[in-house]
From TrEMBL:
GO biological process: translation
Identification of the protein by name: Large ribosomal subunit protein bL25
Subunit structure, interactors included: Part of the 50S ribosomal subunit; part of the 5S rRNA/L5/L18/L25 subcomplex. Contacts the 5S rRNA. Binds to the 5S rRNA independently of L5 and L18.
Organism: Flavobacterium kingsejongi
SUPFAM superfamilies: Ribosomal protein L25-like (SSF50715)
Entry's family note: Belongs to the bacterial ribosomal protein bL25 family. CTC subfamily.
CDD domains referenced in this protein's UniProt entry, alphabetically: Ribosomal_L25_TL5_CTC (cd00495)
TM spans (from-to): none
Cellular component terms (Gene Ontology): cytosolic large ribosomal subunit
Source organism phylogeny: Bacteria, Pseudomonadati, Bacteroidota, Flavobacteriia, Flavobacteriales
Length: 203
């Protein structure tokens, strides 16, 4: 999985007044969990643009001015309900020998037979829950829709895995090919035509 580097400064004062001063300075208060003790630090809001405002997921290399460095993933984020300004971010520290769970985007590949026949592809699940060692975390999970006929569903159990586990329930539908209105109308008209008596046929 690709990594984004966040450079920040460790902070000791974590009270409300100190946090307010941090935000007024254009910085985001952050906490890193998962180690021996939580690490409080700040970083410029602009540093999180490539991490937060994207459908992709990344690991994070946190580099602090005092020389401390950590590998982590974004665990939780708080944003202002009106301005969408980042208020606070929680990170979770990664350890090479410990598996981690996170949601990874689904990438559709292939061309569905059902879509070629006039069906409509629907992506039911845009992210899947993955568990793996940090080095094995995938950037995305591939969903091959090639075998899907009209009306078929692709379940999570049909998704190939490689050095990681999928934790979603077995009945999770990742994608499906639905019958389009045009195809349904054409089928109905064909059925009516088949039932109607041929013109000019004597009774």
């Amino acid at each position: 999985m690709k990594s984004i580097t966040i450079k920040g400064s460790e902070r000791e004062s974590v009270g409300k007044s100190a946090t307010k001063a941090v935000r007024n300075a254009g910085l985001v208060p952050c906490v890193l969990y998962g180690g021996d003790q939580p690490v409080h630090f700040t970083a410029p809001e602009a540093a999180f643009k490539g991490l937060v405002y994207t459908p992709n997921v990344h690991t994070v290399a946190i580099e602090l001015e005092n020389g401390k460095a950590f590998n982590a993933i974004l665990q939780d984020i708080q944003v202002h309900p009106v301005s969408d300004k980042i208020l606070h971010i929680d990170f979770y520290q990664l350890h090479d020998d410990k598996e981690i769970t996170m949601e990874v985007p689904v990438k559709v590949v292939g061309t569905s037979k059902g879509v070629l026949a006039g069906g409509v592809l629907r992506l039911n699940t845009r992210k899947l829950k993955v568990r793996a060692l940090p080095k094995n975390l995938p950037d995305f999970v591939e969903a091959d829709i090639t075998p899907l006929e009209m009306g078929n569903k692709l379940y999570v159990t049909k998704i190939p895995v490689d050095n990681f586990k999928l934790l979603n329930p077995d009945n999770t539908v990742v994608a499906q090919v639905r019958i389009s209105r045009a195809a349904m109308k054409a089928a109905q008209e064909a059925a009516k035509a088949a039932k109607a008596p041929a013109k000019g046929k004597k009774k």
